[in-house]
Amino acid sequence: MELELTGTERTVLRETMEKALDDLLREIANTDSREFRGRLKEREGVVKGILARLTAGERAA
Predict the structure, then answer these.
(1) Domain-located, residue 2
(2) Which regions of 1-61 does DSSP assign to beta strands (E)?
(3) Which of 10, 16, 20, 56 could connect to 5 by a Cys-Cys bridge, CB 3.0–4.6 Å?
(4) Phi, psi at residue 32, to the nearest 5°?
C-alpha cells in the first residue's frame, strides 16, 4: 500500500508515532508479564520501522 501525505500530514503522523513510541516504551518498562512485554517489543519494532520510513520520506521531500 502506498500513502501520499502532505508535508503537514507527514509531520503530524510522525509526531503521533513518536508519542506512541514513547508511551509504548514506558509500558514495556512497567509491565511485569514477560509474554505481554514480548508482544509490546514486537510492536515497538513495527513503530520504529514506520518512523524510520516517515523520517526518510521527510528528508527526501
Answers:
(1) no
(2) none
(3) 10
(4) -100, -15
pLDDT at residue 1, as a whole number? 87
Distance CA 55, CA 33 (A): 32
Residue 37 lies in a domain: yes
Confidence (pLDDT) at 35:
97
3-state secondary structure of 23: helix
Q: Is residue 19 part of a domain?
A: yes
Per the listing, cell 509474554 goes with 35
Residues contacting residue 15 through CB under 8 Å, at least 6 positions apart: none
C-alpha cell at 28: 514495556
- Residue 9 CB-density burial (10 A; 0-12 exposed, 13-18 middle, 19+ buried): exposed
